[in-house]
Amino acid sequence: MYYRKPHYYDKFSCTAEQCPDTCCAGWQIVIDENSLEKYSNVSGDFGIRLLNSINWREGIFEQYEKRCSFLNAENLCDIYKELGADALCDTCRLYPRHIEEFENLREFSLSLSCPVAAKMILQCQEPVRFLEEEDEKEECEEDFEDFDFLLFDCLLEVREKLFSIVQNRTIPIEKRMYCVLKIAKNLQTALDEGELFERDFMAEIELCLQEKAEDFSGNLYEIVRAFRKDLLRLEVLREEWKTNLKAADNLFQKGETWYVEKRDRYKAEIKNTIGQEQWDIYKEQLLMFFMYTYFCGAVYDDMIYSKGVLSVISVFWIEEITFWSWAADEGQIEEKNLLETAYRYAREIEHSDENLNLLEEIFDLDKHYKPETLRCIFVRERKQHE
Fold first, then answer.
1. Which residues pair with 64 in a beta bridge?
2. pLDDT-based confidence at 383, cuts 50/70/90?
């Protein structure tokens, strides 16, 4: 068995009550079968509380006002307090550590939805490296009986090449983002047409990098309005997220000219405070996170392009929503603004299968998420930096 993890993975340490948020609110925590059995055998008053505070049919903790029923007033876990760390279910014990399972490979990551993990991801100045280990453990063949190893091998190879592009800081970040989209689209088309193993995707990546930027021909205002409508379609897990989205109401009510001028001031403020080079590193690290976490998952559902769009558009949305919040008072832009938006966004997306599934459907069908449309935005963004 092979194991892969980002180089900063083992440095994570939970800050417990010092955390600016809690990981026990706003999402349904799934309980593994071993923990359910353990909880069913707890005696005494706490055993009764367990019986009454778990949805045994669904295998999840009940919630009260969108908080886990075992989250106390100090934002700490009563199961941990009463029964110890060994009694935590797998989700609670591992979070924000996340595992993607493939045949003979486990990929470990830290979830962006955790404020501490998000800070580690964003503050990483060097290009992220992936550490690998191997042991003698063998995979249970029945668990991956239908696993498409040929498709997976192709996804891994292309992702590895895209990683090298995304981390090449001599290439404008917008071009790197577009390249991910374009190649994901090419992969999807080849898969749909049965030509996946007849194409030279390494050569296609090189051709993508050689493409010359065209003038921005789309309507940024209308495109972003369409994006926001899609965000508003998603299930809301935390009330503060609704506040983030509502922050844009005033922007869009005042019309296109006002919005564009405000956005241009925001971009100028980034250059004058954080600096464009540092801002691009933030975007690079976010893009690497989403690609590493989701791209190869297409081996299970064949939705390659949707995974590519999720990776790229998440970076754009996090930046855009940070702008919406800034536009309310035009205060100084700081790293913490982007950090807060990033982990709040990830909580709404990563903690809801309903939202992930809806987004993949939207990305697959909506014209606003085609490479040509998104490229128009990236061209405009780059011209502002020059």
1. 67
2. low
Domain boundaries, the chain: 24-94, 173-385
Give the integer Cα–Cα distance in Å for 313 and 319. 10
pTM of structure: 0.92
- CA distances to 137, 276, 317 from 169, in Å: 38, 12, 21
pLDDT, tens only, 90-142: 999 999 999 999 999 999 999 999 999 999 999 999 999 999 999 988 777 66
Measured CA to CA, the distance from residue 376 to residue 215 in angstroms comes to: 7
- Whole-angstrom Cα distance, residue 23 to residue 114? 7
Cα 64 to the center of its chain, rounded Å: 27
Sign of CA dihedral 241, 236, 354, 113: positive
